[in-house]
From TrEMBL:
TM ranges: none
A Pfam family recorded for this sequence: Glyoxalase_3
Species annotation: Nonomuraea salmonea
Protein name as it appears in the record: VOC family protein
Coiled-coil spans in chain: none
Amino acid sequence: MLDHLVYATPNLDTTVAEIEQQLGVQMVEGGRHPGLGTRNRLLGLGGRAYLEVIGPDPDQEQPPVPRPFGIDTLTSARLVTWAVAVTDIDAVVARARAHGYDPGDPQDMSRRTPSGDLLTWRLTPPATAGVVPFLIDWSTTHHPTDSGLPKAELTSFRARHPDVEAAQRSLSALNVDLDLTHGTTPTLTAVLRSTPGSLTLT
């Protein structure tokens, strides 16, 4: 099940302003990621799915390691990856490995919301390019959509990949469905719609 789309940007405020203008919907502050040098804004996509726009946090010191999702090398915003929600992430990883795909070892993550609540989750290492999602397990913590995010409708989510068969094998090992066709480079495309307008993220 789709958990969230990750739209990475070199300038969070600028990108969020562009999205809000196109959709006529105000995004909400997600929170900061201490030590990673990033912060995010969120927009609901219906159900327990959401869009995460993530970029550098100017209020944090330069992190000792590169920011996630290739943010440090971006020159423009890009839909870099997506996450699938699972329960018992260790079992899902073991099953995927048994079917020939290794999602990586789950990592513990956390952030505080603007209201001070601590969210904790576990995830497999996200790729900065490709169409295969990373896994996320929220366990007993509150899901970001539980706070009632402002919403836009996700009307389309699809991908292109130069080796469709290989990508499909990895998706199948995770028991994930995705509209996948051939393309020269791995590309994700999502179409969002609201009453005022629509927006395509690539």
